Amino acid sequence: DWLALKPQEPSPSQCCGSGCKPCIYDVYEKELAQWERAKAKQDKSLLMEKKEQSSNSELNPDTFTGFNIISVEQLTEDTYQYKFELPGNSSLQLSLGQHIVLRGVVNGLEVQRAYTPISPGNAEGYFEVLMKHGELLMLASGTGLAPMLPILQSITDDEEDETFVTLVGCFCTFDKIYLKPLLKDLAGYWNIRIFYILSQETSLEKLPWSYQENTYTGRLNEDLMKTIVNSCRRRPFVLICGSSAFNEDMSRYLKAAGIEENSCFVF
User: Fold this and answer.
1) Pairing mode, if any, of strands 79-85 and 69-74?
2) Is 80 part of any known ligand binding site?
3) In the 3-class helix/strand/coil scheme, how is the chain assigned residue by residue?
4) Which of 110, 198, 222, 258 has its CA 20 to 30 A from that of 42?
5) Which cofactor does it need (predicted)?
């Protein structure tokens, strides 16, 4: 029971690198110390302190405070305005240009980003921020993976880039997957997910368990394409790179999944 309650140490990809106070690592150290005290005394009620703090409407630079989302308004194709509720008629009382750090869970990873509220500093009962959520779907066959990597790395290297990316890599067998260590590292980022399609593998049982969940055997067909497209948060812009036959098949499958030609780019 105590191991299940132990805070999980963040991975490097979960830190935005902006010098936030508190940093996600600061919060982890504080929560770990709180867990260790509670475990030493065998008193789980001591773990409830942070929940009691979350009811406080005043922001605290040493901890996170929970707020409810009142509404989400889409302003452009990839920009959204989030409105958060403040208890009663309280206000953030921030200085001009001062930012706040928002923390949440995305794709099972706890991430945090700094935002400057767009609502007036003395707004009562709420505050608002703008968030940009782009979406890319990359379809690569074999060495068609090559042009996708610089794009992926440019996204992960830019702490302000919040583009969600789904990479689908199509290979003959597990052994033929290129650059496994690099791909594994990229998949650790909160906004990157990677699927593998192995055309000549008949079973996933011999694959490492960490690959089995996001790997499919056989070929990428129309039904699987619809499943992948529908799993995206919004209609993605699609990048395609492979053989001529692969590119033609992907374009046809994407059209059947509701993706128009002007939302695709073929290398």
Assistant:
1) antiparallel
2) no
3) CHHHHCCCCCCHHHCCCCCCCCCHHHHHHHHHHHHHHHHHHCCHHHHHHHHHHCCCCCCCCCCCCCCCEEEEEECCCCEEEEEEECCCCCCCCCCCCCCEEEEEEECCEEEEEEECCCCCCCCCCEEEEEEECCEEEEEEEHHHHCCHHHHHHHHHHCCCCCCEEEEEEEECCHHHCCCHHHHHHHCCCCCEEEEEEECCCCCCCCCCHHHHCCEEECCCCHHHHHHHHHHCCCCCEEEEECCHHHHHHHHHHHHHCCCCHHHEEEC
4) 110
5) FAD
Distance, in Å, from the CA atom of 116 to the CA atom of 97, rounded to the nearest integer, reads: 7
The structural domains of the chain, ordered by start, are 1-9+17-47 (no CATH), 65-133 (2.40.30.10), 135-266 (3.40.50.80)
Q: Is 115 annotated as a binding residue?
A: yes
130 is in an annotated binding site: yes
Rounded to whole angstroms, how far apart are CA atoms 193 and 175?
Answer: 20
Tens-binned pLDDT, residue by residue, of the chain (267 aa): 788 888 878 766 566 565 666 677 777 888 888 889 888 988 888 877 554 444 444 666 667 778 889 999 988 777 889 999 888 778 887 776 677 888 877 766 667 777 888 887 778 888 898 887 789 999 999 999 999 998 998 888 887 788 899 999 999 999 999 899 999 999 988 899 999 999 998 888 888 888 988 999 999 999 999 999 999 988 899 999 999 999 999 999 999 999 988 889 998
Residue keyed to tokens 């590119």: 247
